[in-house]
Amino acid sequence: MSAANSDLYIGSRTLYGLAVEGKAPKIFKKVNRMGVPWTSLLLCTAFCGLVFLNVSSSSAKGMTSVFQRFMKALKAQGLSRDDLPYKAPFQPWGRFDTFLPFKVDTFITSYILIPVFFVLWLSYKLIYKTRIISPREVDLVTGLREIDEEEEKFVKAQEALGPQSTMKKIWDSL
Question: How far apart are CA 124 and CA 131, in angstroms?
Fold first, then answer.
């Protein structure tokens, strides 16, 4: 449930941000008096129910092609997964049997996001006349300097606090 809440927050704010930048319909720029992008939240909530209809592990495999494209971009730019701040332990050797076995009764809940993604992606490409970015041109570094600076500030602030007790270290590791 916590993941669903955070996904609703992230999804609605992302859609709102896209609308502000002119990359999504203007209706999603509407906010209430408390600053909640309610139109974006409604759309995200409409799709959220589908998540709870599908409890199979296959639903987690929808990001495989995005991951593969990201890996191609890393390789094309001479970067390693070891350069990333985090890498999943079993990637890139995850399971690729998402569509097996095919069952009609779970098709809609399992695979609805695949056509939705392609319809939205293709619509955006056609409406805004954008091109597909080659793996060599994918921007993997914008904002990296700022993130590194913030991390450096955080580390210095932690060091300024002095040594931590064993209990504090255990608590922080949870």
Answer: 10
Contacts of 111 (CB under 8 A, 6+ apart): 99
Contact 50, 112 (CB under 8 A): yes
Do the Cβ atoms of 109 and 77 come closer than 8 Å? no
Site of tokens 């906010």? 31
pLDDT tens, position by position, 85-112: 777 666 655 544 445 666 666 666 667 7
**113/121 Cα distance (integer angstroms):** 12
Type of residue at 32: N
What are the phi and psi torsion angles at 131 (to 5°)? -110, 165
The reported pTM is 0.41
In 3D, which of 141, 142, 131 has the Cα closest to residue 77? 141
Is residue 50 a contact partner of residue 109, using CB atoms and an 8 Å limit? yes
